[in-house]
Design a protein that fits this description.
The complex is a heterodimer of chains A (144) and B (178). Chain A has four helices and seven strands; from the N terminus they run H-H-E-H-E-E-E-E-E-H-E. By secondary structure, chain A is an alpha+beta fold. With 178 residues, chain B is α+β, with helices and mostly antiparallel strands. Chain B has a single domain, classed as TATA-Binding Protein. In chain B, 44% of the residues lie in helices and 29% in strands. In chain B, strands 1, 2, 3, 4, 5 and 6 form a six-stranded antiparallel sheet that branches. The radius of gyration of chain B is 24 Å and the shape is elongated. The N and C termini of chain B lie far apart (85 Å). The chains are: A alpha+beta (144), B alpha+beta (178). The interface between A and B is large, with 52 and 47 residues.
């Protein structure tokens, strides 16, 4: 009986450590992602055969609006668009950067956060680029 | 001693629940368009018979000011203006109901204030002969204890109608230089 009690106490202490330790990440992790830099870039980036940055940005904006985002900021020089979307109680923020690649292409890179987590799922980004492709009538090309 | 072990079991259950629920996970498919997108477009978009985007955008800024918003950010070249406004969110019915149910503590959980965010985009229409305006509204509601009660995209047609009525009026007034 004493053994069981001991066991239970150990389990409780262990659970406490796991639970309370839980989501807390040290400040050092502020610059960390769980995926490699190269892999994240390839998941988040596509190339398009156009050089019209302004039109691409306007299409990115309309696509984000179609996806229920409210645009917070935009900058033509930098080619950046930032927006927020509310999903129930969760806040999703996404920023997209459009920049030239060589003389004939534009690179579009998107990164999203869901609450306090970075979105690192390839399919989610693919969904975004599929919608963008349809809006601009161009094919999104995978970049190595 | 027996009580202590009972207590630890009682403690273990909620801890276990917390541990299993853990951190929120990222759901899939939230960047896919849904069936409502087309409907939202109709609600949020209007076309104006002009190709002068700058004129439309400055009318938009004027209308946002008319409606009590302050401008947060803008980029004229891509036809973008964002603005926000703080407002009262108190709902007398809700306060009465909560007071009836739970007294003062429950009243503190009632909606108290809100920040409404508006974001407007103008761009040329597909045929290039008109200007398309699209506005979207969001709001964050705080309760009387200062905590966030809810966040939502506003889908109330009346709000969009009011905005576009004011915008049409402003475009007319500015064209007449009033």
């Amino acid at each position: 009986m004493k053994n069981i009690r001991g066991c239970i106490s150990i389990v409780v202490i262990f659970l406490m450590i796991v639970t309370l330790g839980g989501c807390v990440t040290p400040a050092v992790n502020a610059l960390g992602t769980s995926e490699s830099q190269v892999k994240m870039r390839s998941i988040q980036t596509r190339a398009f055969d156009t050089t019209d940055k302004k039109k691409m940005m306007q299409t990115v904006i309309s696509t984000m609006q179609d996806l229920d985002f409210v645009i917070d900021k935009a900058d033509l020089t930098l080619g950046s668009v930032t927006g927020t979307k509310f999903l129930g109680y969760a806040v999703v923020t996404m920023s997209v950067i459009v920049r030239p690649r060589g003389e004939k292409q534009l690179l579009v890179r998107a990164n999203a956060q869901y609450g306090i987590k970075s979105v690192e799922d390839a399919v989610t980004y693919q969904d975004f680029f599929t919608t963008l492709e349809k809006a601009i009538f161009l094919t999104a090309q995978q970049v190595d | 001693m027996k009580q202590i072990s009972k207590l630890s079991v009682l403690l273990a259950i909620p801890l276990l629940c917390l541990g299993v629920a853990g951190c929120e996970t990222v759901p899939k498919g939230f960047l896919k368009p849904n069936e409502a997108s087309l409907e939202n477009r109709q609600l949020q978009m209007r076309q104006y018979e002009t190709i002068n985007q700058e004129q439309i955008l400055s009318s938009v800024a004027g209308v946002l000011q008319d409606l009590g918003f302050t401008l947060d950010a803008s980029e004229t070249q891509v036809g973008f203006v964002a603005a926000s406004k703080k407002a009262d969110a108190t709902n007398v019915g809700q306060v009465f109901f909560m007071a009836l149910l739970g007294g003062a503590n429950a009243v503190a959980a009632c909606d108290a204030s809100q920040v409404i965010k508006a974001s407007v985009i103008t761009k040329p229409s597909l045929d290039g002969k008109k200007t398309v305006v699209r506005v979207t509204f969001q709001r964050v509601v705080w309760n009387q204890a200062g905590q966030i009660n809810r966040v939502e995209t506003i889908k109330d047609p009346a709000m969009y109608q009011k905005f576009y009525e004011s915008l049409s009026k402003a475009i007319f007034l500015e064209a007449q230089q009033i």
